[in-house]
Design goal:
Strand order of the largest sheet: 1-2
Largest sheet: 2 strands, antiparallel
Distance between the termini: 65 Å
């Protein structure tokens, strides 16, 4: 997403938006696009179409999960080990 404004009108609306927030800004034209820069530090700010858009929540609201709901899947309850597969492991253990 570009920080350049497509039109002077969009740039002027962006300057007004930041002025309302107590951050004076100015417009610089560059290659047919308009950059809005904060006067205090000359940093390019986000255009109004980006700055005024509310951010989406990081994740949707979720309900609490009780410990009873946190059971292992059924497939893991029935795992059996064959003695042939465990033989080399058991032999390597100290007596």
């Amino acid at each position: 997403m570009s920080k350049a404004c497509a039109s002077r009108e969009e740039a002027e609306a962006t300057v007004a938006h930041y002025a309302d927030k107590g951050q004076p800004a100015h417009i610089e034209e560059m290659a047919g696009r308009f950059l809005v820069k904060r006067t205090a530090d000359n940093k390019v700010v986000q255009p109004l179409r980006i700055a005024a858009t509310p951010a989406a929540p990081a994740r949707p609201n979720t309900t609490a999960i009780s410990p009873a709901d946190c059971r292992p899947p059924q497939a893991l309850k029935s795992v059996e080990y064959s003695p042939a597969a465990l033989g080399p492991i058991l032999d390597a253990l100290p007596s």
